[in-house]
Amino acid sequence: MKRSWRKACLASLLVAAAGLAHGAEVNATFYAPTLQIGSTNIANDANDHVYENADGSFTLVGTESGGTGDRGWQLDWDFTIDYDPFINGSLTLTNLGSARNFLLNVEVPVVPPIVGATVFGGSIMATVFDANGNGIATLTSSTAADASPGIYQSFIDNSPVLDLFAAAPLECSGTVNCQISLSDQDGLPGPTIPGPGVNQKIRTVLMFNLSAGDRVTFNTNFTVEPAPVPLPAGAWLLISALGSIVARRSFRAKTC
Question: Full-prediction pTM beyond 0.70?
């Protein structure tokens, strides 16, 4: 299956969606990803769709809202997964309550496992919007005790392997409905960062704090591939020798 690096979008909520199969027929090889907001599973309903793509990947599109009062939120997602594996797409969180910490988790099973070394890379772009029209919107790192160093953290199985987007705060102000964006990446294009094999899953977690009444869109990617197998030393000698032969023949042809 063709592997490619892409983006994936995740925010301050653990999102577990087991069985988003409302939008289109999917084949028996579809394994539902896990999506949660905090410890709350995202419910499946008629607004959730799964589309099977020609390359064997799956695109998930949906919207959900929950919480009450100063804990209210709305989550919209549009991302693509593959079991090669990669996670690529966007998640948009609207904070309908007071400023607070959020955590968003997207977890994808890897079928079959990747035995041996891997290479990986990831990226994130965050855009924060003044959704309540008060002329200011702020996105910062989560203040939770167990928060990752950056807003973005990716895992191979249960081991954290990549932290991104430690630059904070991201703030727009002075204009009603203002917005501002910032991005970060490592190991892409590629992927190029050496990593372990994958026994069961990959996942990306976003942990952040968002101002009251405002909205953030995360476009993120996490891609893992088997590490290239290096050529034996003898092969490089053979390639060098063949190159020398070709060069000599080319020189002789020009001097005849």
Answer: yes
- Grade residue 122 by pLDDT with cuts at 50, 70 and 90: very high
Domain range for 79 is 34-230
Within a domain: 214:
yes
71, 33, 52, 186: CA torsion to nearest 10:
90
Residue 13 pLDDT > 50? no
Residue 60 falls within a domain, yes or no?
Answer: yes
Q: Per-residue pLDDT for 123 more than 50?
A: yes
Rounded CA separation 256/252 (Å):
6
Start-to-end C-alpha separation, the chain: 49
Decide if 245 is inside a domain: no
Give pLDDT, residue 242.
60
